[in-house]
Design brief:
The chain is an alpha+beta fold. The chain has helices at residues 2-7, 9-12, 87-104, and strands at 18-22, 73-77. A two-stranded parallel sheet has the order 1-2.
Length: 119
């Protein structure tokens, strides 16, 4: 999603790009709530390269992912776990959010691109 936004940056500058993810699957999520910038908007967050993320021995995929810097907003769902993407629950939330936006707002266009994820 972030790559698509970057390609059309001049068009999307005024369009919110909302990422939805599990709080426990965000790399260094504590950085968003701790430190000298605590409670400030926008939050300060530093992404790391994919190759620096910890890899799960069983799945061979990263245990967490960094927030996509091309998004303008994030909805982080807290399931009370760490290193778990809660893919089905997040997918269900995205579907409900898309339905809400489609039926209850005056938006001219709502497009949801799903599953950028860990590859």
């Amino acid at each position: 999603v972030g790559d698509a936004v970057a390609m059309k940056r001049s068009f999307v500058n005024s369009i919110p790009v909302i990422g939805v993810n599990s709080w426990g699957a965000v790399h260094d999520n504590e950085e968003l709530i701790e430190g000298e910038d605590q409670g400030r908007f926008p939050a300060s967050y530093t992404a790391v390269p994919l190759e620096e993320l910890e890899i799960d021995a069983d799945t061979k995929k990263p245990k967490t992912m960094c927030l996509e810097h091309e998004h303008t907003h994030f909805i982080l769902l807290d399931f009370g776990t760490k290193n778990n993407f809660h893919e089905e629950e997040v997918r269900e939330f995205r579907i409900k959010l898309q339905e809400h936006l489609r039926t209850r707002t005056e938006a001219q266009l709502v497009s949801v691109l799903i599953e950028g994820g860990s590859g």
